[in-house]
């Protein structure tokens, strides 16, 4: 099977350069329009697609990003491996602004977003105990190291609703009691939806600030975040460009089973399934729904 890398670029990353046959394509989905057109092309012989999470010009807030349409659109294009690149705050002294973290766990504190492709008429329960793909995450870690980026392997990302940053009390609680390492607003429900769509998913968090807990750094200031992001965005793009060579143009089945997540997940009896919902699931669950 061909490898097809999909990159979801977060704040500060609205395009990538260097793709052969680069073309912005419009992808329609049954879940509405994605955040923007998707930039498709080939890099070092490997198919790539790039989607700016907030849209070019930063149109969508973390709450209004059309997460279901974004994941459906990537799946519909044939993407096999999704890499999320995001800005985040840090809860750890040693995870400093400018560093990257290849996140491996999430705490989902979002509450105003559609979190599943499934529902009445087609119920499914997938496991997200291990919400990121270790194979893809390892490739991201190697790519970051090779690109000379200071990168931390593993970390827990707390996804908050936003758009306001955390209060001091929340920041201290997430750090001291909940054990979170970084905080952002967008990786959930994105990671859950990628798992439902049987896509391998890895998350690269680019640290822009110390959130509000750090006694020497004060409040989160979006102007400071943007300054750090401008430096980080080039590093993020350098990391992404090393992935095609590391992953190769051909791929086997995922050794961790990300691409089989729906195998036994759908509980609704075939005769009780809602045909309209089943039709909407053509890209996401066509493999198991037929
Ligand atoms: C620009 S600060 C807040 C904003 O940045 C992060 O976005 P993304 O994850 O898409 O890089 C954070 O989650 C907030 O949406
Ligand atoms: N401190 C922070 N909290 C939430 N999202 C962020 N994105 C960048 N920094 C952040």
From TrEMBL:
One of its GO terms (biological process) is L-methionine salvage from methylthioadenosine. Pathway: Amino-acid biosynthesis; L-methionine biosynthesis via salvage pathway; S-methyl-5-thio-alpha-D-ribose 1-phosphate from S-methyl-5'-thioadenosine (phosphorylase route): step 1/1. Keywords: Glycosyltransferase, Purine salvage, Transferase. The keyword Glycosyltransferase applies. InterPro entries: MTAP, Nucleoside_phosphorylase_d, Nucleoside_phosphorylase_sf. Belongs to the PNP/MTAP phosphorylase family. MTAP subfamily. NCBIfam families: MTAP, PRK08931.1. This is S-methyl-5'-thioadenosine phosphorylase. It comes from Thalassovita mediterranea. The gene is mtnP.
